Amino acid sequence: MMTCISGIPGTGKSSVSAVLKRMGYDVVLQNDTTGNYFICDDPDRDTAVIDEDLWASEFRPVDGIVEGHLTHLLECDRLVILRCRPDVLKERLVLRGYSSEKVRENVEAEALDTILIEALENHKEDIILELDTTERTPEEIATEIDDFIHGRRGADFGNTDWSEYLGTMI
Questions:
Q1: H helices present in 81-135, as ranges
Q2: Rounded Cα–Cα distance for residues 105 and 53 (Å)
Q3: How far apart are CA 131 and CA 81, in angstroms?
Q4: Which H or E run contains 85?
Q5: How many Cα atoms are found within 13 Å in the side-chain-facing hemisphere of 96?
Q6: Pairing between strand 38-42 and 78-83?
Q7: Helix, strand or coil, per DSSP, at residue 68
């Protein structure tokens, strides 16, 4: 069974995946699989551009977890989308040294539910779990994901609304 963990940068994907790895899950990092799909660097956005569609179509399924901000594009058995309140996300991204433009872009994408919308365009609703990481530890989130993977918790999404943060974050 392949479980994908997706979310805007700074929502906790790497931290939660590290806990899941300690729990015994095999974890594949998206960034370790995209090298052959590199198109160019985008210096304005301080990011590498990859052929997302080709990467997703050629991705070989794994028995475990795939973590990254594009993994919601993959065919998977379970999909977890991590969310973070935009004001907290902004603080996290600033601490990472992101440019103000990159912070704004990611905070807006979070407030607009960008990843959830893309996930719903590509997946059945019964495989999606959306979790707010804002005030929770990676261990708490990992436990919920473990419960979801093992069927002790059902799909759940659409309860996170950050729209009040639009226009107030930058």
A1: 86-95, 100-111, 114-122
A2: 21
A3: 6
A4: none
A5: 17
A6: unpaired
A7: coil
Helix H or strand E encompassing 65 = strand 64-67
> What does the DSSP 8-state code read for residue 157?
-
Prediction pTM value: 0.94
**What is the 8-class DSSP label of residue 11?**
S
**Tokens 């994408």 identify what position?**
109
- 132/135 Cα distance (integer angstroms): 8
One-letter amino acid identity for 41?
Answer: D
Return the amino acid letter for 39: I
Query: Collapsing DSSP states into helix, strand and coil, what is residue 74?
Result: coil
Q: What is the pLDDT along the chain (170 residues), one digit of tens a residue?
A: 999 999 999 999 999 999 999 999 999 999 999 999 999 988 877 788 899 999 999 999 999 999 999 999 999 999 999 999 999 999 999 999 999 999 999 999 999 999 999 999 999 999 999 999 999 999 999 999 999 999 999 999 999 988 888 766 54
In angstroms, the CA 81 to CA 133 distance is 10
